Every structure is written in C-alpha cells, then in structure tokens.
Amino acid sequence: MEFQYNGHLYENERINLVAKEIINKYPFISIDKAQEAASLEGKIDIKKTPSLELNRLYNIMFVNSSNKDIVKTIYQDYLNILNDIVDDNKYYYISQAINEYLYDFSEFPIISEF
To answer: pLDDT tens, 28-48?
Structure first.
C-alpha cells in the first residue's frame, strides 16, 4: 500500500489521499469506511515504517470490525508486516487480541489499551 507524504495537505485533502490509497489496495472497502479509517491516521511526514503500516491496517480493521471477512483479509497483511518488527511487542499483543476477536472470544480491541 502506498504511504505518500501528506504533511503539507489540509486535513480533508489528507483524508481523501489516504482513503484513495486504502481503496487502491482494498477495493472492497467502501469510500466511507476508507475515509473513516483515514481520519484516524495522523499526517505522514516521515519515511514509511512498519509501525505506520500496522497502525493504518489496525484503523482499517477497527472501522470495519462489523465485517469479519474484511478484518480477516486485512489481518493477514497485518501479520505479514508484524514479522518485520522484532522490538515492539505492542503490535504482537494487538494481533493476539484481534485473533481472539476473529474467533468470537472478545470484542475488537482498542489500540489505546496496549
């Protein structure tokens, strides 16, 4: 997925750009849900990092948490990126909580709890 520099854009322009990047990667996500996920993301003014990617994927899953099929698809990409991070257990614990959600053991996790 693209992560274009957007630190110079107004908020609505940034949201639209990020929503477009989301839909380009996941065309099955509605524009409304893509914009909602994009609105949860801050400005990108640094080089793309695994943490930025995981946060975006989390936001996409969060706003689509009522549709487990979408969450499962995004979760696979989340796990693939998670393999690149060895020093931040926060994302590992979030992945475990999402897995519990997918198997109906809990509600979708809130990232601020980690």
So the answer is: 999 999 999 999 998 888 888
- Burial class of residue 13 (count of CB atoms within 10 Å of its CB; 0-12, 13-18, 19+): exposed
The answer to whether 91 and 57 are in contact (CB under 8 A) is no
Judge contact between 81 and 57, C-beta under 8 A. yes
pTM: 0.88
| Cα 83 from Cα 11, distance rounded (Å) | 32
| C-alpha 84 chain-centroid distance | 16
State the Cα–Cα distance between residues 41 and 56, nearest whole angstrom. Answer: 7
d(CA 114, CA 58): 13
Q: Rounded to the nearest 10 degrees, what angle do helices 11-25 and 31-39 cross at? A: 130
